[in-house]
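quick one, 249 residues, struct below
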Amino acid sequence: MEMVLLTALGVGGATVIGAVLGFAFKKISHRFSDIVMSFAAGIMLSAAIIGLILPSLEYEGGVVLPVAGLFCGALCLNLMDKTLPHLHGLAGIDRENHPKNTEQIDKVLLFVMAVAIHNLPEGIAAGVGFGTDDIEGAITIAAGIALQNVPEGMVIIAPMLAAGISVRRTFIAALFTGIIEVVGTLLGYLSVSISTAILPFALAFAGGTMLYVISDEIIPETHSHGSERGATYSLLAGFCLMLVMSRCF
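---
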């Protein structure tokens, strides 16, 4: 149990470490913001496919649960996008005083929310490993997730700061995404039988939320300010970075 607690803190803490590094980019241009967001989209795309959707197909039960989970994840975020149109309120910014920023903030927070949602099944996956006899494999999985979380933590900072969200609230949001993963790791360890049954759905659900945000929000946003070429190559760079990490772990 002590190893599980240390792993949970390490996996979640990696996101916070990445967030702290992300504060180095406080003042960025619109072009650079598009490139950073595209880089994040590449990381999310790779994480969604390689780290979530493909692993969800490895469990018993075929493709029904993963496909259902993927669409449910996308629909969930779609509903959140429609029913929570005032996410900027979480950032402490009101529409009357900052009418031009609220739409951008809503998109950024939706992106952060997708990262937080995908961290839960990732944490469960790490925790489930420790509930089996394959401790070495569990450590490898946890190390890969932690390494992936560093750039994920970095890329959520710059967009929030660029949208006008305060440093304090930005850090709290980053901390929240890390805590979600700690909770997921502990849940995975304590509920191996239950989490193993729902893990294919949960992994694909998280992947669906990420694919939705990439297609519906990030790509259109980063390709609407004249930085299409840079944004495209930045997305490829983020995808390849996670591809290399997946081969190393």
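Residues 2-248 form one domain.
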